[in-house]
């Protein structure tokens, strides 16, 4: 009669035991899914490999080579969703399975009209020296000797042999290039082409103009793994901006200031400058690269804002589609530097999602839309007095959408310019600066977008985003680059630094009154011959040359051979100052800086 209760007790005990065994959390181990990762056993012939984030998805593999070598075909690879490193391809599209360290080579001089050079090779190893000389009757301009550096560039300047018999001077031939034959008469054209494996940057065709200058920008040949040095980029960019920004326009100045001695562009009263910054945020841009790009761009914006002219900014991010970060039509934000930077700092790097192509046409088309809007409302925004700067930062080439050149042609049309021209010098209301980052950029395409103006560079190719940041940071202060005599406008009133590239010429005994002169190079000063003597046949005295950052002593004085203050005394002319010019060579180089 007690069987049922006993059975219930036994059943309850067994169930409880089973339950305790099934939910014994102390003994349980939960298997979390392992993060996706790529192999960390990759290697490069002749170098070594490093991995960010341990090779996990989204991390970057970086190849490292010796100081005079570079990784081929790529310097880095990205770990994708398929747990594979991005594919390596050569310039012709062929897939490559293993990276290699290759020697850095400089493209050698291939042609020197009316001259000779040695050695005659197509390529030169780092440390190689090429020497140049000219035929009788021709003078050598540029460097007589150049050395191949580890950046793939040559020291010195392009050698040119010229006798000045034509309307235009010999425009020269850069290393790695050949130039068509012909005279340098007004209306004549020369055509450049680079040897295989090199891209031509600058103007491929130049014309001798009526003012005896050559149209377009100076060409240069650059290989896929060659880059512009940061110092050269900073100097060229800062010099170009100085000429563009230091405008004579009282209403456009943010504050009243004294006159500047910088080279200027004369524009009408009430002018403005609109700056359009196009940031590449496509799939090849890592988060780290984007952060470097953002930081560099903020540095550039601060630099632009340092000029005393009213600016408005439009900042956009482009991948397959375009996202506006700062809209230029919102004048309360686009004209406030703090708001512009705040919006840029708050932009989400992942906002493009999976649409990670590179649509440069869409980016430039957005710029054309904004320019068109401003043109339609020109009465309210001084459209006809506004200069436009477009700055493109990209690490690749446009791989989706229409050709970007189409959108740029629309922009030129809106501003009243013809698109089919090889010289953009007369486009005073438009400057297009292009920064290519890394070895994967389509240099030919970027060259077609950059402005080509006489005496200026608008296309720069740098090694990585870190270098881009260094460039933009270095031009924040004009002190870091050599610019053509920029007067320092200081709040305190004093003469120091307000007469750029001017020097004082004093005799050592200070018996004669001091003269003034101009710095023409680090080792030469141009001044008047009467500071030294009354005729070129007299022995000139030693002099002190005082510049903004110190003083140097003269080593040699060359007076014009026809200088003679008494030359017309027989005609009752007591003092004759024709040919009153002298060159002074100094014993120590004058540092060309913001203080000179």
Question: Please, could you describe this protein's structure?
Answer:
Disulfide bonds join 134-161, 194-221. This is C3/C5 convertase. Residues 1-20 form the signal peptide. One of its GO terms (cellular component) is extracellular exosome. The protein is α+β, with helices and mostly antiparallel strands. The chain has 4 domains: 44-103, Ribbon (Complement Module, domain 1), CATH 2.10.70; 105-207, Complement Module, domain 1 (Ribbon); 227-480, von Willebrand factor, type A domain (Rossmann fold, 3-Layer(aba) Sandwich), CATH 3.40.50; 502-586, Thrombin, subunit H. The chain has 10 helices and 32 strands. A 6-stranded mixed sheet has the order 23-22-21-24-25-26, sandwiched between helices. Strands 27-28-29-32-31-30 form a 6-stranded antiparallel barrel.
In short:
This is C3/C5 convertase. Residues 274-475 form the VWFA domain. Helices cover 20% and strands 26% of the residues.
Supply the key terms.
10 helices; 20% helix; 4 domains; six-stranded mixed sheet; six-stranded antiparallel beta barrel; alpha+beta; Rossmann fold; 596 residues
Q: Name the shape in a single word.
A: globular
In percent, how much strand structure appears in the residues?
25-35%
Helix content: 10-25%
Question: Strand sequence of the main sheet, in spatial order?
Answer: 23-22-21-24-25-26
CATH structural fold name of the largest domain: Rossmann fold
**Please, what is the average pLDDT?**
83
Rg for CA atoms: 32 Å
- CATH C-level category of the largest domain: Alpha Beta
The number of helical runs is 10
N/C terminus separation: 118 Å
Determine the structural class based on helices, strands and strand pairing.
Answer: alpha+beta
Unreliable runs: 6-28, 247-270, 477-495
